[in-house]
Amino acid sequence: MPGSIPPQAPHPPFGQTPLLWRLLLTLALVSLLLDNAWSLGDTAASGAGDGAEAGSAGGTRLPSADLSACPGLRIAVINGVAYHYEVLAGLLHVLRPYAKQTDVFLSPYTRSANADGAWDLIRWSKTNMRLLTRSAVSEIQRSNTHYDLVILVSTDYELDANEDLLRHMPRRMTMAYVHNADFNRTQRLIEVAAGTISGGFAATDGTAGGGGRSKRKRGGSGGDSTSASSSQTKPATPSEVRLITLAPHIARSLEVASGRKADWLLAAYPYRPRTNCMEATEVDLLGHCLRGFSMQGKFSSQRRNYSSIWSQLLEKQAELTDGNVGRLFHMSLLGKGVEERLGLPPELQPHVSLLRRLKYRSYYEAIHHTFALIPAMAGPRYLTDKFSSTILTSLIAGTPMVADARFLEAYSMFNASDVYLQAEGEREVDVMLRVLRSEAATVLGPRRALLSTRRRLNEAAGAYLAELLRGLCETSSGTQEGSS
Ligand SMILES: *[C@@H]1O[C@H](CO)[C@@H](O)[C@H](O)[C@H]1NC(C)=O
Ligand SMILES: *[C@@H]1O[C@H](CO)[C@@H](O)[C@H](O)[C@H]1NC(C)=O
Ligand SMILES: *[C@@H]1O[C@H](CO)[C@@H](O)[C@H](O)[C@H]1NC(C)=O
């Protein structure tokens, strides 16, 4: 029943238990979450639900283009790397209205046992999903299918592989996600996306089918493309290119680096928690539905400043572990990587859980049940050129971040209401202590605001795609050759 926690959720009296018991209880909680997540995954297969918040439950409908005038319009989405599944899931969410016209090309590892449940995160999609096995790649290269829109999800991570595929994908428009504005081959990336790279220059040893066969052939569909290409190539029909980033600061920085317009588009898969803390009763919320904080992502000091957090926690350890605050405090680290890289001091071990390589759904479920995510970004590049993976996790799990003014200036899709604000001169631990001492209503404020920001972002992404597809639809009649 809504508004209450299912009976199987444990209510351990953390405050009174010895440390060993706390650890065991945490493990039990995690395994429960794992079980729940799996049953959730199963309902997706039966079509009962996909673990995403339904459009109507969110109180919104995604904007969509009416493509009935161009039934032959085709969209391809390419993500050949075995990560960025959370980016892909958000994109597929806003592409739902066009699923029947969309082919998705995925890493061959997507469904393997060591993909951390990536398949669960996207398998609800009604698109035509294909794994990029060697033979599939050859088949794609042979078929030379024409697309109106091709979306490259990980362009700066698989530029050479993208190039091999795109050479055989005549297309009118290419949206290329660029994750890092400091990528050092941006000009080449633009040429690959446009299809204006010359045969001789593109010396990639590459995947199957590169050799010999119809290298320059394109089933160009005529017309409207605006050539932004260099002149020494002889392109058949250059594709129009849109550079896409995940955040405003990256778009600005990429525009400077590339000398071209760059947009930003952040679509977030609206994960529906097994037990939604927004619906918990006040008495169930603090310490039961919500407990502790989380840091997520690969265990790498290049990405997150763990030592800064450890030293803060050590300094305030007495306050954090005493009384009512102590009952609510914990730190969960979710991700993968070498544990030693975390440099976790032994004194903090009783208060920190490592949740390694959880399946995506359990990952978001576990994070949903923490008060806040601590981004602890390592270095200023995440505020100028790069995207912190914590941002998308926050939106998907519905768990606000601890963030300061500089953060909000870069990631300006959030405002002060969406986060637990770290004021000038405060450190993360000060905010953590404040949150742990807050009443339920205060705790829930940013959570509620974050969900409406997620809706707004998805609507904006949906509107962006709708406008683009409307344009492609209008100009497709007459030039449309149909898929081959
Ligand atoms: C580009 O960056 C990669 C790794 O980030 C590096 O190995 C390579 O040498 C760089 N290339 C240039 C031309 O700077
Ligand atoms: C990590 O934080 C510490 C202390 O706040 C700081 O001295 C150090 O420069 C930071 N390191 C990085 C990589 O941001
Ligand atoms: C944040 O944005 C929301 C929605 O646009 C607005 O209602 C709210 O007042 C803003 N909060 C702050 C602190 O600017």
Tell me what you see in this structure.
The protein is α/β, with parallel strands linked by helices. It has 2 domains: 191 residues, 3-Layer(aba) Sandwich (Rossmann fold), CATH 3.40.50; 181 residues, 3-Layer(aba) Sandwich (Rossmann fold). 36% of the residues lie in helices and 12% in strands. The chain has 16 helices and 13 strands. Helix 7 links the parallel strand 6 and strand 7. The N terminus and C terminus are likely disordered. It binds 2-acetamido-2-deoxy-beta-D-glucopyranose (3 copies). One 2-acetamido-2-deoxy-beta-D-glucopyranose binds next to loops. Keywords: Signal.
Summary of the model, kept short:
The protein is of the alpha/beta class and 484 residues long. The protein has 16 helices and 13 strands. Helix 1 (19-46) packs across helix 12 (360-368), helix 2 packs across helix 16 (440-474) and helix 12 (360-368) packs across helix 13 (389-397).
